[in-house]
Write a structure and sequence with these properties.
With 348 residues, the protein is of the alpha/beta class. The protein is 49% helix and 8% strand. It contains 15 helices and 6 strands. The chain has helices spanning 2-6, 44-57, 85-90, 107-123, 135-143, 153-166, 168-178, 180-184, 191-204, 208-213, 240-256, 259-267, 284-291, 297-320, 335-345, and strands at residues 33-37, 62-66, 92-94, 127-131, 230-235, 326-328. The protein has a 6-stranded parallel β-sheet with strand order 3-2-4-1-5-6, sandwiched between helices. The longest helix is centred in the C-terminal third of the chain and has 24 residues, at 297-320.
């Protein structure tokens, strides 16, 4: 079943690319939109599919909007635990397989697409449910993006070259000198976010942390309230060891299920390279490096699992700072059942 496959995945890639300032637009409806969030491996899709089955049984129809930055890409199937064609025929899914892996999909684009889709789905008389764990997408959709500058391709290219020459831990040390607040929450090898923070500083002369602090209501974190047009359901596992064991089992199933061959097929496309957001997705990046000869099998597996655990930790940190969310523990024997019952009561 899709839920059992999908809840154990660790293939999210929060693209740290912003576009000009976006203000949230309230939908012309009175009922809040259900949004199911949680760290990777929490059971989000299992809950969403169960809810869709229930809705169908009472004559209602749910359409799911994916809030996952890996699922937008065609060809990234096994490593992202993408729903099968049969599963997507049973329940309509949006924002899956909409781009080639050479393309870039930003938080700003997601915000616009999600708002448009919610309106279109409701005009059809159906119910939109947003599901995923890419929290930068959540922030853009729910709160709008702060006035961070758009990407500068010249600065970005130069920083990429410096990162390749000096190594990203050295670039992280540079960031620590100009923006210690941002640097302290980033891993030294998190090239994407370190690059973005350095880029913002070069463009504006101001640390990213200062720019975000100047617009806390738009940050989507730091205790910010949930907009009244969203009903946020957060699945937050209490048993970290169990979560890690599930993620390890899931990644091994991906490897046994053809993940290496899938990445080999991607590598056959000469337009793809490891600096693209699609290839930076958790799991894909580590397998790509393995096929490049940068690591052996055990190192690749270790790095992929470590990256997945780090992703889940970041997601939980973000979620726990959001005030007013409806929290359920999926590892509690009755946790998912309680979450499903809550969602059923708020279907409309």
């Amino acid at each position: 079943m899709m839920g059992l496959r999908r809840i154990l995945t660790g293939s999210y890639n929060e693209v740290m690319q912003t576009e000009p300032h976006i203000q949230p637009q309230h939908l012309p409806v009175s009922l809040p939109i259900l949004c199911i969030v949680g760290p990777t491996g929490a059971g989000k899709t299992h809950l969403a599919m169960s809810l869709a089955e229930h809705a169908q049984s009472i004559g209602m129809k749910i359409e799911l909007i994916s809030m996952d930055s890996a699922l937008v890409y065609r060809g990234l199937d096994i490593g992202s635990a993408k729903p099968t064609k049969a599963e997507r025929a049973a329940v309509i899914h949006h924002l899956i397989d909409i781009l080639e892996p050479t393309e870039v999909y930003s938080a700003a684009k997601f915000a616009n697409d999600a708002k448009r889709l919610c309106q279109e789905i409701r005009l059809r008389g159906n119910i939109p449910v947003v599901v995923g764990g890419t929290m930068l997408y959540w922030r853009a959709w729910a709160h709008g993006l702060s006035s961070l500058p758009p990407a500068n391709p010249h600065i970005r290219t130069r920083l990429d070259e410096q990162g390749k020459t000096l190594g990203w831990p050295a670039m992280h040390m540079q960031l620590m000198k100009v923006d210690p607040i941002t640097a302290s929450r980033l891993m030294p090898n998190d090239s994407q976010r370190v690059q973005r923070a350095l880029e913002v500083y070069e463009i504006t002369g101001t640390p990213m942390s200062t720019l975000l602090a100047d617009s806390p209501s738009e940050d989507g974190r730091e205790g910010s309230a949930i907009p009244d047009w969203i009903n946020l359901v957060s699945l937050e596992p209490s048993d970290r060891a169990r979560l890690h064991a599930n993620l390890e089992k899931r990644f091994d199933e991906m490897l046994n299920g053809g993940l290496i061959a899938e990445v080999e097929k991607l590598r056959a496309n000469c337009a793809l390279h490891p600096d693209l957001p699609a290839i930076r997705s958790v799991g894909y990046r580590q397998v790509w490096e393995y096929l490049d000869g940068q690591s052996n099998w055990d190192q690749m597996r270790y790095k992929a699992l470590a990256a997945t655990r780090q992703l889940g930790k970041r997601q939980l940190t973000w979620l726990r700072a959001i005030a007013g969310r409806n929290t359920f523990d999926p590892f509690n024997p009755s946790g998912l059942a309680l979450a499903l019952e809550y969602c059923k009561q708020h279907l409309a």
